Amino acid sequence: MASVVLSEAEKVYIVHGVQEDLRVDGRSCEDYRSVEVETDVVSNTSGSARVKLGHTDILVGVKAEMGTPKLEKPNEGYLEFFVDCSANATPEFEGRGGDDLGTEIANTLYRIFNNKSSVDLKSLCISPREHCWILYVDVLLLECGGNLFDAISIAVKAALFNTRIPRVRVLEDEEGSKDIELSDDPYDCIRLSVENVPCIVTLCKIGYRHVVDATLQEEACSLASLLVSVTSKGVVTCMRKVGKGSLDPESIFEMMETSKRVGKVLHTSLQSILHKEESLGPKRQKVGFLG
Amino acid sequence: MAGLELLSDQGYRVDGRRARELRKIQARMGVFAQADGSAYIEQGNTKALAVVYGVPRGIGGVRSRALPDRALVNCQYSSATFSTGERKRRPHGDRKSCEMGLQLRQTFEAAILTQLHPRSQIDIYVQVLQADGGTYAACVNAATLAVLDAGIPMRDFVCACSAGFVEGTALADLSHVEEAAGGPQLALALLPASGQIALLEMDARLHEDHLEQVLEAAAQAARDVHTLLDHVVRQHVREASILLGD
């Protein structure tokens, strides 16, 4: 991951600031930086979103492809995650350099979506045991300015919200052979409910306190952090400790409470902004990377 | 089944352009704050990002492949897994990406004044976000802006454009549909001020007599691209100098 080098004095400055609930950029411990979200930025995908959180820049594309359901879940479709840490973010990611981080993030995404409530996978089934939709969720990391996991989860949620899957019908003739018919109307499509899609809230332990949405500098001061994936109702679906330091059990409970509180607010504002963007309709001026 | 009609009797192409007409080009410099130079370009539906990491890098360390007399230009091309119609399995490292990386490297070694920065490395990373024909051209144009944004001295702009040949007419700036239809394709990177060619590549066969016409179409398109890029650079510098309060 892109690293910053901080002197001892700079670290002390950041740690003392956090203890006083005043961070370097003027935020308090539970404040996010302003998040920019735009959906439908790549037109040849089923759904896409770009999220900018401070200097962290994420592009997510979702492609729906037809495939066969998994043997153990014959009447469900499934999601595939892939994270590309491109060399755009830092030269260290050139060649295969970003693969480790990419796999780590992809595995985390698999884990937070690995429960029945996150996405209604049954709606992705076309005909049991034979055909289903596979949603390839591809994350592209373009710039890395701290708090990758939160930004990626927000972008994934926004892209899934934007995803439109063409409606198909299964026609069966007398001999029992099945035929799949795609709807002629390009606007005739199904959409996923993202009500229960969780977002990750990362809490960085700095000194005796913890902060949300740490910048690169703050991440450099923190030894351990806790990833908590929270749904809009405040339900925790997954939790993971990352970093080389250790955390004591009491602070984990404190951090969970914080993450639930912060997560609910994050979901509410994300939902409202996504609906607001959609209400602008197809005539909306797309900004993309030009703005 | 009759093939797709690429050029109508009235002289219009599938997307409604004239034979020598370019797609709409929009570009922006300085997209990212952390990189030394960055740029984004849209040519129709082809979208590319280029990032340049700068001159003093690569001195010592494991990655050092420093040359004693000039700077090493290192290019990586990758295209997002969702960029193409059918999903790609790998963003980079496949044969096409490696080839594209080498072509970009050749193009920019011809343009950057490498002898001014001995024992250093210039990394150019290009990322295609959406591919709709002419990816090489979009990558070169984006990379030119990114190198300019990084302030690395160049001989000239490098402007690239593709061209094809259908029914006795040269077409400039091919879209994906026109590329997929087969037929000759020419990729040209031009240094517009001197009219020198930095890279020229043609596939499929084309009669020698027609080459001049196709080459001229590509060169004219590249000069048009130059006018647009020049405008983008001037605009960017104007905005930057206002922000600096000059």
UniProtKB/TrEMBL annotation, chain A:
Q: PANTHER family per the record?
A: EXOSOME COMPLEX COMPONENT RRP42, EXOSOME COMPLEX EXONUCLEASE RIBOSOMAL RNA PROCESSING PROTEIN
Q: Which GO biological-process labels does this protein carry?
A: exonucleolytic trimming to generate mature 3'-end of 5.8S rRNA from tricistronic rRNA transcript (SSU-rRNA, 5.8S rRNA, LSU-rRNA); nuclear mRNA surveillance; nuclear polyadenylation-dependent rRNA catabolic process; rRNA catabolic process; TRAMP-dependent tRNA surveillance pathway; U1 snRNA 3'-end processing; U4 snRNA 3'-end processing; U5 snRNA 3'-end processing
Q: Name one GO molecular function term.
A: mRNA 3'-UTR AU-rich region binding
- Keyword terms: Acetylation, Cytoplasm, Exosome, Nucleus, RNA-binding, rRNA processing
What Gene3D superfamilies does this protein's entry cite?
Answer: GHMP Kinase, N-terminal domain
- Source domain of life is Eukaryota
Q: Where in the cell is it found?
A: Cytoplasm; Nucleus, Nucleolus
Q: What is this protein called?
A: Exosome component 7
Task: Give every Exoribonuclease phosphorolytic domain span.
Answer: 32-166, 196-261
Question: What family name appears in the similarity comment?
Answer: Belongs to the RNase PH family.
Kindly state the subunit structure of this protein: Component of the RNA exosome core complex (Exo-9), composed of EXOSC1, EXOSC2, EXOSC3, EXOSC4, EXOSC5, EXOSC6, EXOSC7, EXOSC8 and EXOSC9; within the complex interacts with EXOSC2 and EXOSC4. The catalytically inactive RNA exosome core complex (Exo-9) associates with the catalytic subunit EXOSC10/RRP6. Exo-9 may associate with DIS3 to form the nucleolar exosome complex, or DIS3L to form the cytoplasmic exosome complex. Exo-9 is formed by a hexameric base ring consisting of the heterodimers EXOSC4-EXOSC9, EXOSC5-EXOSC8 and EXOSC6-EXOSC7, and a cap ring consisting of EXOSC1, EXOSC2 and EXOSC3.
What is any one of the record's Gene Ontology cellular component terms? cytoplasmic exosome (RNase complex)
From TrEMBL, chain B:
The Exoribonuclease phosphorolytic domain covers 21-153, 156-220
Q: Which domain of life is it from?
A: Eukaryota
Q: Which UniProt keywords apply?
A: Acetylation, Cytoplasm, Exosome, Nucleus, RNA-binding, rRNA processing
GO MF: mRNA 3'-UTR AU-rich region binding
Predominant location category: cytoplasm
Q: Which GO terms describe its biological process?
A: defense response to virus; DNA deamination; histone mRNA catabolic process; maturation of 5.8S rRNA; nuclear mRNA surveillance; poly(A)-dependent snoRNA 3'-end processing; positive regulation of cell growth; rRNA catabolic process
Q: Where in the cell is it found?
A: Cytoplasm; Nucleus, Nucleolus; Nucleus, Nucleoplasm
A Pfam family found in this protein is: RNase_PH
CC per GO annotation: cytoplasmic exosome (RNase complex); cytosol; euchromatin; nuclear exosome (RNase complex); nucleolus; nucleoplasm
Q: Name the family.
A: Belongs to the RNase PH family.
Quaternary data: Component of the RNA exosome core complex (Exo-9), composed of EXOSC1, EXOSC2, EXOSC3, EXOSC4, EXOSC5, EXOSC6, EXOSC7, EXOSC8 and EXOSC9; within the complex interacts with EXOSC2, EXOSC7 and EXOSC9. The catalytically inactive RNA exosome core complex (Exo-9) associates with the catalytic subunit EXOSC10/RRP6. Exo-9 may associate with DIS3 to form the nucleolar exosome complex, or DIS3L to form the cytoplasmic exosome complex.
* Database matches in PANTHER family: EXOSOME COMPLEX COMPONENT (PTHR11953), EXOSOME COMPLEX COMPONENT RRP41 (PTHR11953:SF0)
Q: What is this protein called?
A: Exosome complex component RRP41
